[in-house]
Amino acid sequence: MVEEQKPIQVAASEDAWLDEQVRRSVWVGPLNKVVDFVDLIYNWGRRNSVWPLGFGLACCAIEFICTQSSRFDMSRFGMELVRASPRQADLMIVSGTVTKKMGPAIVRLYNQMAEPKYVLAMGACASAGGPFKEGYNVVSGVDKLLPVDVYVPGCPPTPQALLNGLIQLQKKIDKQSIRDVAWYRKGAQEGVPEPVLGPDLFDARRVEEITELAADPAKLEARAIKIVKETKGEKK
Amino acid sequence: MAVNPPPPPETKINPNDPQVVAEKIKTVFADAVESASAQGIVVKSDKLLDVTRYLRDKLSFDYLNNVTSVDYPDRFEVVYQVSSMDRGGAPLTLKVNAARENPTVPSLVPVYRGADFQEREVYDLMGIQFPGHPNLHRILLWDGFEGYPLRKDYKEPYYEEEKKPFGTRWDQGHHVIAEDRNPWHDNVKYPANFDAMSYKPTQEIYPTLGLAEATSTRLRTDKIVVNIGPQHPSTHGVARLKVTLDGETIVAVEPVLGYLHRNHDKIGERNTYLQNIPYTDRLDYFTSMSNNFTYVIGVEKLMGIKPPERAEYIRVIMAELTRWQSHAVAVGFLYNDLGAFYTPLLYGLEERELILDLFEAVSGSRMMCNYMRFGGLARDVPEDFLGKVQYLVDERLPKRTDELEAYLIKNELFLARAKKVGVLPRDLAISYSTAGPVLRGSGVKYDVRRAEPYSIYDRFDFDIPTGTTGDLYDRTIVRIAEMRESLRILKQALKDVPAGEIMTGKKNYQIRVPKGEVYGRAENPKGELGFFLNSDGSPNPYRYHVRSPSFINMGALNEMAVGHKIADLIVIFGSLDVVMGEVDR
């Protein structure tokens, strides 16, 4: 049984038919509207597949593991795939105290991550040094070394707080546009130079300033703000 | 099953008493002892090796608990605690004086191998030389670091005052943030005339290839050095292992530590006694309750106070719940290391959440409980708390322990990978000063809860599980058995927890601690945690040192791993169950 072939409905003219098809399936608009639309899809994909780097520093790493486990279940946000290699990761969760000895390693890991990449400072130590700030081997927050996108307070932050931080990161990703993100700009992306472990940790970008100031104790002293010494009960 | 005998009553001669031991030493080495008191024996530096050999071989002080040092204005003092595995009882304290200029003390590594890492730590932080040490260089900081931080004249970059609370921290105080006070506007300081532009870091250059031709294989192979960590998916934090390989066989493992060195000792000496409690939470962050417990035991020993009955019972309940969850997670992580990614760990973490909920109910925080106080607890438990623990102990946890054992420990794949792997024989386990399940896995029936009962552990009926061969399997099976013993203790404790006060005296921010020195210790899930405290009578400890079981257990890693294949290394490392927060402190 051969079906009777229906003739194609031919429009009044070929051009009109083509116009009709184009109107139906192709959206035409100004360029920035097109980019907005691309951003929407692109960011939707990225925000729901932020793969964190499996990188635990201290106590906060345990809460990070709890966040991944069944009770809090980070995979609801598409983030369960913790990568051991920085080359495959999008998000570095700095979960714990950043020590000077670890500093160069953290910067190297960050440089090894491919763009787009984000940094989340989890907990008080990674945000600002936390309870260990006064220690001689502690960096006062990872933002002294790397650009940070989201700070999550707490010592350690509860899994709920970390999830909130990740949702904030998603909101941040939503607002990004391929028009202005750094990784589509021209010119090579340079990594953050690794700090050097000398007599103390120093930034490779500040060597000139450090050498100059170390040679001039008077100038160095002038840079510090002295504490106003006052005891309790003493009136000004 | 022989149980370690409890310490003999006061009337009999205590073989661990410093004065008794000093008399015995004097009979052999006439001029070795400088002085002896209840605080310990001061030994002459040049006779130290002879004395410790004699103590080890003749008086069976075969275990070196702790090595630390104190900086006095006129001298340095290196303090050793040694104890006997068979006899138990309180550890014996030995002290050696060293001059302020160029302090040197002979190394104890030939006598106790466990001295290796601990002496390196003393060298690193206090600057005392140990001639005879095989590998004396910095362990927690990096080679090239300027200064010895634990000396009293060392000032951190953010140094504000000698002691807390700082004078600027009151309502109308003029506090300047630390970054502004420091001329570099960061937590750094450089020596005068430091030339950063031409500075070349003293980098560890590892000849990785072509070290020497290996001999043991049929094929011609080179030795290579493989660097594992500090970022590594084995989820043990920031540990780094420098492994020398012959083909696939491990020739040597050297742990490189200090990537999480958070200066507990130095900060602890600036803090008041009370301010240190939250810091102990962050040592081994899986077991904050037990860390609190050990620290308050140490300070209470120094103050000579006892908490009320109810507080004692609640402390034991907290410590045993902590032990259960720590071991459950340890077994889970071991599976992670074996390659069974995450699923087995979830069994442990699921129950851990229930216990963490209880901790949150009593203390307000899931992990960092900060719950114990000197002479009691911060607050009483909520009304329904004991009922919830009862439910867990009766219904939930025993089933889960059985399940964990059935699914995991009786798993054939696990047996194939765990039996006869990472063997640590009995005598080496003692010599390396290992503690906790690592020591007991090697067949040493030693548990501080029995050897020197603290709190109310002498009232409970429990066994000390031990292994036979000291392999990875034994260590894991000891952990599972200890989980059962914890439940046994919990059942007994819940039965007789009394009502009443939870604090002796009134709550106090500033406690009065008499002059003196104490080594307070307790059996933590990871092993013997100890706090060495030296008080000069002021509100702040003069010396605060943590004897960390994870750190000292790491010293035995080389012994366990040599001869195995590289694929087994992470599992052997995992079976030590170290937490880097405690290793590096």
Strand content of chain A: 5-15%
Spans of chain B of at least 5 consecutive residues whose pLDDT stays below 50 are none
Task: Indicate the overall shape of chain B.
Answer: globular
- SSE order of chain A: HHHEHEHEHEEHH
- Average pLDDT across residues of chain B? 86
Gyration radius from CA atoms of chain A, angstroms = 27 Å
Measured as a percent range, the helix fraction of chain B is: 25-40%
The CATH architecture of the largest domain in chain B can be given as: Orthogonal Bundle
The greatest inter-chain interface is formed by:
A-B, 68 and 74 residues
Question: What is the residue-mean pLDDT of chain A, rounded to a whole number?
Answer: 84
The main sheet of chain A orders its strands as 1-2-3
CATH superfamily of the largest domain in chain B: Cytochrome-c3 Hydrogenase, chain B
Total individual domains of chain B: 2
Radius of gyration of chain B: 24 Å
In the CATH hierarchy, what is the class of the largest domain in chain B?
A: Mainly Alpha
